Amino acid sequence: MMFLIGDEIPSPAAAQTRSTVASADAEPAPPALPLTHAGALPRALLSATPELMSVALLITAFTVAATTLPMFLDARYLLDRSTVYMEVGIMALAMTFVIAAGHIDLSCAAILALTGALTMKLHATLGLPMLPLLLLAPLIGGALGAVNGVVVARLGIPSLVVTLATMAGYRGLAQALIGDHSLPVPAAYAGFDDVLLAGTALPMPVVLFVALAIVLALVLHKTLFGAYVLALGTNGEAARYAGIPVGRTAAGVFILSGLAAGIGAMMMCSRFAFARWDHAMGLELDVITAVVLGGASIFGGRATIIGTVVALLLIGVVQSAMGLANVDGEYQATANGALLIFAVIASNLAARLQGRQTR
Amino acid sequence: MESTVVSQPPMLPAAMRRVIAARELPILIVLVLIVAFTAVTEPRFLSTDSTRSILVSIALLVVLAMGETLVLLTRGVDVSIGSMTGLAGMTIGILFRDQYVENVYLGTLLGILLGAALGAVNGLLVTLCRVPPIIATLGTMGVYRGLTFVVSAGRQVDEYQLPPGLAGWSVRGPFGQGVVPWVVVAALGVAGMTAVLLRFTRIGRRVYAVGGNPEAARLRGIAVGRVTFGVYVFSGATAGLAGMLYASRLGAINPEAIGSGMELMAIAACVVGGVSIFGGSGTVLGVLLGCLLLGTIETALAVLGVADAWQKVAYGGAILLAVVADGIAARRWGGSSSA
């Protein structure tokens, strides 16, 4: 199942070289074979270059923060602060699929805002109980994502343009729905981020994020759908000829992104204790930054969930450290942007060095 | 003689197909309908003041969209233009405030140069460092916006701190206090320059060639890297000019507000105007109409008393409608609007 798109597929050319090697093997020992074996481990390490780059940056950032800011090593502070990033985190997990498929979803933050607004409006005007609404929210998000997916998949319009349009549209609908004021969440459902997992110091948003990260890592790396997504991102045309349901796969990643935004909506509404049309404004850029910083190729075909998780940790560490050091929130955009560019250049350089070595 | 007779019959459907598939005509029709409807419902829509304010806000968009057009034509994208507008506008605003610069024209020139320098950074990242355009400009978008806060210390530059001539650009024009202030003239100048550049110069041909097929362009001996670098510099320069126009229009320069979100408006205007996001296809006239359409929709809805929220919805709807129509046209007639 998994080798559908894996590099293990024996291409005719590879088979041919293998057979020539085998025939040459009969007489003198070929010098090529032992060499490739010796290079296997470093090569495996180097092929994970973008992720390693993020890990290196994370260790550096953590060390610098831990040594210069005495408050930083307080685990409770870090966990408490981490709840602020969990909406971005969950959307980034789904965005990893979108980017792996060679697409982009600029509308995820707007979906979050609209889902939150719609859910709370349903509760406020129709008096629907909260519990079913909590379960309904991801479905609403998924449906909004499906609109993106269908337009992208059926009409072949670039996702950048489609989601640019729905980003404005969804945001506007959210504002039209609840206006400029905030819609309160019932007290019993507010403060999800203050709830700890029984017997631990782990806030629930973090638990939810970790659980979703594990599930989505399995989906991306161990299921047929994940293989389809990566195949679509590697070469859409080839994927179509290989019999992969290209349209359904593309639609699927946008639905997943909407679903995650729906979950994020409930988390954010609960954290703020109200829904607003301008919730998560501009957060789509943070989400995309996290995914790319995590080593995903913006052209698709290459992405890992662990990379995204490491990148989120990195962003979290940098921003927490900047917060402790009393750096204004506005400057954090600079840090994020610089981090992103630096990580991509660094992994480009590493890839070029790698190319030189293998040549 | 005979050959012209023979070649004429197949020419006619081709020409008709061009008219139908051309992006300009439907936009023009929609534009006229919107203006007519709004003017009938709310006659003050066509008053001098209202028209002028629409044109001034569109002028800003046109300038930015011209830079974005060139970048999109080369298969790139520049999402940092809003932040470049902010950083260039804010920096020059501070030079004015602290009276390092008093001449408005000198300030504008500096703004354009600063914008070009910021664009050059994007260009280097894309060409030399081989960072994908969306990543490079997403990064600088954050960096430049943050730097805008750094240079301004988070404070806004107020109207009285700017040279008095600047605000006049949005009010007075070559025909006095009419509907065509200098800001609009400048935007038309930039658009005209871009049109000439794309249509009649070698550089323009190269921009289309690089976007149409970078590999083929390289094999034909076009310095793809240099062309790519150039379009980002141009995009930065237009953003620098837009920063000054923004300061002229609003009077004050706020570090958070200046230029923010403009990148998406500019990209939307380009896309509605028929520029292909895959590069190599699009015209200045189309983009101009795209800007006019989006700007008019915004103002018309406001004049009609439609809430801000629904304006956003209409905005998104217009973009979606344009691209969906394009997609269907491309399927039916094979190939979208021509270059």
Structural summary, described in words:
The complex is a heterodimer of chains A (359) and B (339). Chain A has 359 residues and is mainly alpha-helical. Chain A has helices at residues 12-25, 32-38, 40-47, 49-68, 75-82, 86-100, 108-126, 130-155, 159-178, 204-222, 224-234, 236-241, 246-272, 283-293, 305-324, 331-358, and strands spanning 183-184, 274-275. In chain A, strands 1-2 form a two-stranded antiparallel sheet. In chain A, helix 6 packs antiparallel against helix 15 (305-324) and helix 7 (108-126) packs parallel to helix 9. Chain B has helices at residues 2-21, 24-41, 48-73, 81-97, 104-127, 133-152, 164-168, 182-200, 202-212, 214-219, 224-250, 262-272, 284-303, 308-333. Helix content of chain B is 74%, strand content 0%. Chain B contains 14 helices and no strands. The interface between A and B is large, with 46 and 48 residues.
Descriptive key words:
heterodimer; A: 359 residues; mainly alpha; 16 helices; disordered N terminus; B: 339 residues; 14 helices; 74% helix; globular; disordered C terminus
Describe, in short, the structure shown.
The complex is a heterodimer of chains A (359) and B (339). Chain A is mainly alpha-helical and 359 residues long.
Number of DSSP-assigned strands of chain A: 2
Name the average pLDDT of chain A. Answer: 82
Which assembly state applies to the chains in this document?
A: heterodimer
Compute the number of helices of chain A: 16
Structural class of chain B: mainly alpha
Ranges of chain A with pLDDT <50 over ≥5 residues?
1-38
Kindly name the structural category of chain A.
Answer: mainly alpha
Largest sheet of chain B: none
Strand residue content of chain A: under 5%
Q: Helical percent range of chain B? A: over 70%
Secondary-structure element series of chain A: HHHHHHHHHEHHHHEHHH
Mean pLDDT of chain B: 85
> How many DSSP E strands of chain B?
0
The CA-CA distance between the termini of chain B, in Å, is 30 Å
